[in-house]
# Entry
Amino acid sequence: MEPERKPVLAIFDRHSLIDGRGASWTIAPGDERGHPFLGSWPHNIGDQFVASGLGRALDVDEFYTITREATPEQFAFVNETCKAVIVVAQNAMQPGWFARHLPISYLRQLKIPLIFFSLGLQFRFGEDILLTPEDVEVLRYLHDHCVSSQVRGAMSAELLERYGIRNARVLGCPSLLFPGTPNIRVRAPSLEDVSFTITDMGRLPHLHAFQFEIMEDLLGRAGRFSVVGQGGEWVLQAFVAARDGVHPSTRIDSDVRLGPDGPVLAARGPTAPALGPGDMMHSRLDWYDLDELGRSLDWYYRDASESLRRNIKARAFFSTSLPDYVRRARDQTLYAGTRLHGNLIALTQGTPTVFAVHDYRLKDMVEFLRLPHVSYEAGPRRIALEDCDFTGFEALMPDLWNGFCDFFEENGLAHRLTRTPIGNGTQDAR
# Structure
């Protein structure tokens, strides 16, 4: 008897990874500037954190990737072949997102469920938490055509409920599945080795200052302090990459054809095949100037103290590799900062983690997960180790774990999770 075939899934090229490596894998292997999802830098590998957790949980052997430009024939094939389309779109609940990226005219061509993971709101403090009529139309359509979606926190579920959508499970973030166990035990915090996950907020000076206030305090108290870049920090990433020799130059490649008047160069794209017998390639390097990049960093972080800028230039961490972040998190005695997924990955390694909450997105998550935090909205902005209580989060994790099992199974998604004994049922949305 042949084993039962696992469901075949589909994904959108921009909104999911499944296995931690997306359709934008176009940089040739060995090119250290490349990134498994985003290709060329600056990178944001937060999506990879989420997808790697999801990839460990889903039991998938094959899937198809489609684009917004799919043909009717491709839609018909996907509808016939695939169980569902799954999407990881963490910050999609913001005005106009669905109208831009997943309009109703597109979705109506899909006859199979479209299932959202980690659906969450994206609003700054003080903004009205409202969606456009087009967004609401799409969200209602999506939820009418699947058993359930998975949302981050109670605020996200309440926003859906406001528009009559009630089949959403509140389960936090799939990155919590990354360690492969719900039994996370967070170590006692100390200030020996402290990392701060930073977000570029140069266009929002008040939030930039909020980060610096917390960083300056930690710098003054920590035995060792360093800033961690995760995504979008163009100035910081460029400096660290040049400082550490990760990619000290840009490179332009050209295929070479030898003509009667000498070599003729033709630009070589990132998807070009490997060189074959008799082929030749010309490369031109454009070396970075570390001193110039340092001056750019000083200017961008000019509102920080000179001592903090010196620390950033000497100790800041950035990598294009998820395992580097995991190993680093294990070695730290305290993580703090404004990065949602970078902080969660540290937490899954048992590293005490305090969120610096600067918007409703983070507020939604930390309140649901019962995590210690400091907030721009109110309260002291100094991290007190005696307030770092993770017992609520640790107790919640088995409920979330079994909640993900329920979510996968009710949507017909094969998974690798084993249910864990709990006392009081799953913590999910209405």
